[in-house]
Amino acid sequence: MATSEKNLSVYEKENLPNAKDMKIGFVVSEWNPDITGNLFQGAFDALIDVGAIKENIVRWNVPGSFELPYGCKKMQESFDMLDVIVAIGNVIQGETKHFDFVCQGLTQGIMELNLKSDIPVIFCVLTDNTKEQSIARSGGIHGNKGAEAAIAAIKMAQLRKDAKFYKSN
């Protein structure tokens, strides 16, 4: 597995853009709240660690991971001042094809939002075979995918800002 040799929580703070003035939105699935809560906390802690201000962080909850694209779309429409949005969810393989349909739909939905909107959406959805794998990636032995998503969010927010600068010059 990709994470077996990598700690998802490790980042080089000194090499990151300044997050002080960034406004970051989160849309968090309520399904598997122990996992999604840990992912959010890992992301939040990483953002605060790299200089983000608590008041510049917005969180909305949605019932499940399949609802993440809609929640992110509504957040994009409601908050023009956001620099980036992070979608947090967890889908665990079950005995039916439901897993495949949910994962495919939400992945496609997040990708479409990234192509159609100016506010980037970061995919922080664990799609694991077992609950143990999700635990390992949400603050367990492999670190926290939420922290990794927060760092990606900062980088994409900076890319968005840089692109606007180049477009105006």
UniProtKB/TrEMBL annotation:
It comes from Psychroflexus lacisalsi. It is an enzyme of class 2 (transferase). InterPro entries: LS, LS/RS, LS/RS_sf. This is 6,7-dimethyl-8-ribityllumazine synthase. Pathway: Cofactor biosynthesis; riboflavin biosynthesis; riboflavin from 2-hydroxy-3-oxobutyl phosphate and 5-amino-6-(D-ribitylamino)uracil: step 1/2. The active site is at residue 98. HAMAP family: Lumazine_synth. Catalyzes the formation of 6,7-dimethyl-8-ribityllumazine by condensation of 5-amino-6-(D-ribitylamino)uracil with 3,4-dihydroxy-2-butanone 4-phosphate. This is the penultimate step in the biosynthesis of riboflavin.
